[in-house]
Amino acid sequence: MAKQIKGKLERMGVDMVYPVPFCSVAEKDSQNQHIREFAKHFGRPELEIAFELENIKQVKVLRDAPCGSTRYVAEGLVGVWERDAVEKSGLLHHQYPCLATMVKDQEFDDTLMHRGGLMTKLAVEKGIKEAKGIKSD
């Protein structure tokens, strides 16, 4: 159905992206300036993490999920031991009222909520590595 809608919109001169789940949208998904501007602030989670000894001191949200779950996770990670942070972020994501379905998606062989949670966990993992000066992809 997304392909049909996209085709109709393209014929009308309207740009569209169809990220699945919606929190996976990224600037690279479109050349449209409005979509790119939106994706700078909302979409695939991006975090900056600071530590005090081995505990998380601060989490700055560089890009929030459209539903706000990244900010919720960030607030819940303050004070968490570094080694527990990635797992804790997944739990926090599932506690947030995410609008993604828990029905298994045939295309991805997973639920959209799990895909959203994985993106959050990867953002935390990347933020930890960058805080330690470890280059990440």
Structure description:
The structure is a single chain. With 137 residues, the chain is α+β, with helices and mostly antiparallel strands. It has one domain (1-137). It is built from 5 helices and 4 strands, in the order H-H-E-E-H-H-E-E-H. The strands form 2 sheets. It has a two-stranded antiparallel ribbon. It is globular and about 55 Å long. The mean pLDDT is 93.
In short:
This protein has 137 residues and is of the alpha+beta class.
Number of strands: 4
Beta-strand content estimate: 5-15%
Q: Number of DSSP helices?
A: 5
Instruction: Supply Rg.
Output: 16 Å
Q: Which strand order spans the largest sheet, edge to edge or round the barrel?
A: 1-2
Mean pLDDT across all amino acids: 93
**Percentage of residues assigned to helices:** 40-55%
Number of domains: 1
Intertermini distance: 33 Å
| Low-pLDDT ranges | none
Give the structural class.
alpha+beta
The SSE order reads HHEEHHEEH
Largest sheet: 2 strands, antiparallel
Question: What is the approximate shape?
Answer: globular
